[in-house]
Give the backbone structure.
Amino acid sequence: MRKIDQLLAEYGVSHQNPTNKTIHWICVPAIFFSIVGLVFSIPQGPLVALEPVMGNLANWATLALAIVLVYYAFLSPPLALGMFLFASLCLAIANLIHILSPIPLWIVSLAIFVIAWIFQFYGHKIEGKKPSFLKDLQFLLIGPAWLMHFIYKRFGFAY
């Protein structure tokens, strides 16, 4: 069995309850986005030298996502492509909020992060099982991939 299949199966064990699954479909992408937004909000520091070439994408979130996408690529290149598209959407939305919102991106992201985690823990209370990441931190990255693999299955894509 491939490592990605093992990780997805293990993650799925503590995500059987339909209410918990629904909460995860909303909150996992929200948490992923909020982390992108929080990391995007870190001052550029040495990355400012790349701004003439990369524009607003010269930030810590782009660097962090590149590393995360390498992890996904090792697990499943096709799944990494879907995660790349989702991560790109998160970066684009973070950039829009950064440019257009009167509320700073980090405040928006922090609010989403806190609210989404409250719902996540509520979902696990309903499930009666602890969140997978308490056993192994890599499950923080498997959650979004778990959802993406359902999208792939729905459309008949191999992952």
The mean pLDDT is 92. Residues 3-155 form one domain. Residues 19 and 123 are 7 Å apart (CA to CA). The longest helix spans residues 77-100.
